[in-house]
Amino acid sequence: MGIVKMIDNFLTYQGPGSDHVGTYRHELKYVINCAEREDIKLRLNIALKKDPHAGKNGYMIRSLYFDDYWMSAYQEKSMGVLDRKKYRIRIYNYSDATIKLERKKKVDMYIYKEDARLSRQEFDMILAGQYDFLLERPENLCKEFYYECQSRVLRPVTIVDYEREPYILDEGTVRVTFDNDVRTALGGYDIFDENLPCVNVLEAGTCVMEVKYTGFLPQIVRSVIPPKAAELKAVSKYVLCLEKTRSAL
Questions:
Q1: Domain boundaries in the chain?
Q2: What's the average model confidence in pLDDT over 33-41?
Q3: Is the pLDDT of residue 145 over 80?
Q4: Nearest-CA neighbor of 13 among 134, 133, 113?
Q5: CA angle 168, 169, 171 (to 5 degrees)
């Protein structure tokens, strides 16, 4: 067994109560300008391919983030705490065809993400503060989300929107994405409402480039990261959108 395969096996396991195999992975984020994005995309086309699950122009992501009474997820992310977690409900292209409750954990240098599918009715119940059904779900994630909502007063705090262009490379299980038009939606937490007013959170002409990988990061990907790109460490799309939401109140 090669060393890369051994590392990949170590980092991958079946999460308890999960309906998918989870993977601890590295995640790098950079703010780049649009000219850099187009140059990087041209260079990536040599080795990477567009994610076949995405449309021609990618797809739109909307996430409703939750935080507790003390705003722990926000505070810990802002301070760069190494071990932390946050919850969100995610949809694509404003559709209820796929609704996912997700928990994203940061453990030292690694990221681990779990998810559980929700129905439209279950989402509506969560938004209405009716959490009891989560205890009947088989996934531990749902049960733990219930206890967080009840004991830590976990509630919706902000919506994060963006258009994603994803690229993939099998070696090292690499995924490179460009998140364009990052914005927060104001006026409510109904994530299926396409008419919620939105406010951009990045400077004009910039986007977020994310590089995610498990075993190793191939040189072809390392070489395209702009040397002057600002890496997002203590700041995230969630933090940027929450701060914009608060300033708009």
A1: 3-248
A2: 93
A3: yes
A4: 113
A5: 150
What residues contact 167, with CB distance under 8 A and at least 6 apart?
41, 44, 48, 49, 50, 51, 175, 176, 177
Distance CA 104, CA 120 (A): 22
Fold of 3-248: mRNA Triphosphatase Cet1; Chain A (3.20.100)
What single letter denotes the amino acid at residue 211? Answer: V
pLDDT digits (tens, 9 = 90+) for 227-240: 777 777 656 899 99
- For the residues of 132-162, what is the DSSP string, one character each? GGGGGSS-HHHHHHHHHHHHS--EEEEEEEE
- Concatenated DSSP letters for 171-219? TTTEEEEEEEEEEEE-S---TT-TTS-EEE-S-TTEEEEEEEESS---H
Pick left, alpha or beta for residue 153 (phi over 0 → left; psi -120 to 50 → alpha; otherwise beta). left
Per residue in 118-140, pLDDT tens? 999 999 999 999 999 999 999 99
Q: Evaluate if pTM is beyond 0.90.
A: no
What are phi and psi for residue 138, nearest 5 degrees? Answer: -75, -25
